[in-house]
Design brief:
The protein has 262 residues and is of the alpha/beta class. It has 7 helices and 9 strands, in the order αβββααββααβαβββα. The protein has helices spanning 4-23, 87-98, 108-123, 145-149, 158-171, 188-196, 247-259; strands spanning 36-37, 45-49, 54-59, 128-133, 138-139, 174-179, 205-208, 218-225, 228-235. The strands form 2 sheets. Strands 2-4-3-6-9-8-7 form a 7-stranded mixed beta sheet, with helices on both faces. The mean pLDDT is 91.
Length: 262
């Protein structure tokens, strides 16, 4: 497994460059998908509890932009985003607001997902929690796969972002992804997500979490490779976590994989 700290630093440097270009209104938009918003502050990652010993959650990209993220809102009292601090510090301020401490406007589903991520990370014994995006720009709808899993022809620093993000994911000791499709190992979505998470589907345990006799709609893949554990939650039609009553079993399965690390 690639050394984690230098890979993390390279990723964070790219994120700082993206923020600086956006603040200066120089972020290149050529070849971007029309659904991305260049007017809302990029949000490549959030630190809900910054620590070296962190669980990493991966989602596809920031959702719909809100007014407090607009360029004209930066440095205003109602926005946590500041132009005179690093993206690293802004990521902590944003995460605090999303977790409920700053009363930032986000959907109930997103706030519940944040609470669930924090709770599971704590249950697994991780002191920190970082959520990173496969692409850093906001959009109301899901972006095309090429921007999430491919290498689109973009100008720097956006060109480097996907590569740096995937390198960080592959180097991280604990990674959890959220996929909005059924837990079908032969499906396109699961295949794309498993590659993004560096999760070996052939060696992964598939745990069905949905009830009933039909094809499963909720489940997870758990893969342990040496000191690294990767998990992909699959929930058809939603990128949320499994139902609360299933989380104790989920936690035990992941704990077992963590305890078996070598």
């Amino acid at each position: 497994m690639t050394a984690y700290v230098p890979v993390r630093q390279a990723y964070e440097e790219t994120c700082e460059s993206i923020l600086a270009e956006w603040l200066g209104d120089h972020l290149p938009v050529s070849n971007l998908w029309h659904g991305f918003s260049a007017n809302h502050c990029p949000e490549p990652y959030l630190d809900f509890a910054a620590a070296d010993h962190s669980a990493m959650w991966v989602t596809h990209n920031p959702g719909r932009g809100e007014d407090f993220q607009l360029r004209g809102s930066v440095d205003e009292q109602w926005s946590p985003i500041r132009s005179d601090i690093s993206y690293s510090e802004n990521a902590k301020r944003l995460a605090s607001g999303y977790a409920g401490y700053g009363a930032l406007k986000i959907s109930a589903a997103a706030r519940a997902r944040v609470a669930g991520m924090k709770h599971l990370a704590a249950q697994l014994g991780f002191a920190g929690l970082r959520q990173i995006e496969l692409f850093p720009l906001h959009s109301e709808n899901r972006p095309p796969d090429d921007f999430l899993f491919g290498n689109p022809d973009l100008a720097e620093p956006l060109r480097s972002y996907g590569t740096k993000a995937r390198e960080l994911i592959a180097a991280s000791p604990m990674v959890i992804g959220l996929c909005g499709s059924a837990p079908d190992a032969s499906g396109k979505a699961v295949g794309s997500w498993s590659k993004a998470l560096a999760l070996n589907l052939e060696r992964a345990e598939c745990v069905t979490l949905s009830r009933g006799t039909g094809p499963p709609t909720v489940g997870m893949f758990v893969n342990r490779s040496g000191p690294r554990v990767s998990v992909l939650f699959c929930r058809q039609g939603s990128n949320g976590l499994p139902a609360k009553d299933l989380m104790p079993m989920v936690t035990e399965r992941i704990r077992a994989a963590l305890s078996d690390r070598v």
